[in-house]
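REQUEST
  id: r-88c1
  op: predict_structure
  target: Metallo-beta-lactamase domain-containing protein
  payload:
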Amino acid sequence: MKDFAVKILTAEKGNTHLFSVGQAGFIIKSSKGQLLAIDLYLSNCVERAEGHTGFKRLLPKLLSPSDLDFDAVVCTHPHLDHFDLDTVPQLMRHKTKLFCSVDCKKLIKQTQMEYYREQITYVTPGDGARVGDFSIDFVPCDHGEGAPDAVGVLVTVDGKRIYEAGDTCLRLDRAGEIPKPLDVLIGPVNGRYGNMDEEELSQLAEALKPGITIPCHYGMFASHHGDVGRFYDIMTKKKLPIHIMQQGEQYTLKRL
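RESPONSE
  id: r-88c1
  status: 200
  body:
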């Protein structure tokens, strides 16, 4: 697990780096070396909570919560593959700022994280924050009745805009609320649990016209589905820019 952490820590300063951690988890490293994490799933807590093989972790663990010190951590909603009960409390040890949707309050209490209350901010769509190099805007998403307060995340860093749509169905009526231009669009393709499928993420990419679209939310659990090959075919046919990230891959947004 240390190798991936070393890869992140040694990524050259001067450029912005995006790392895929699997499922919907991403790490952004600023040009000055600051770190922001979104929806990291580093444990097996989902299988433990759900109790069946459909939620068995299928991708390897690349990080331990103790491997990196984050300036900010975002949990877009309280589903356990986005708010990892075994991970989030350990990420708070070095004055890390945690931003989580308001419906994460029960999990904060369950994990006895009230000790860190000065570091925790509950967010709703329309809220924003500044942490070091990162400007973070929390935008609407629609994850259905199971997580009605879920948010998407728009991160502006080093003059780049990275939009992680969060777990959401397709809402083209809200596409105008996302500022352009976008350098990166990240969105789910699994088509289950109220999420976009492969075709729907391509439609969002058509509407937002990002520099690159990166699919997520596939490969971790058998029950979640998601066909990244189908997404590749759809995006290629539409001649839309796509980048499929291997778990542990580094994508560099170079400064102009």
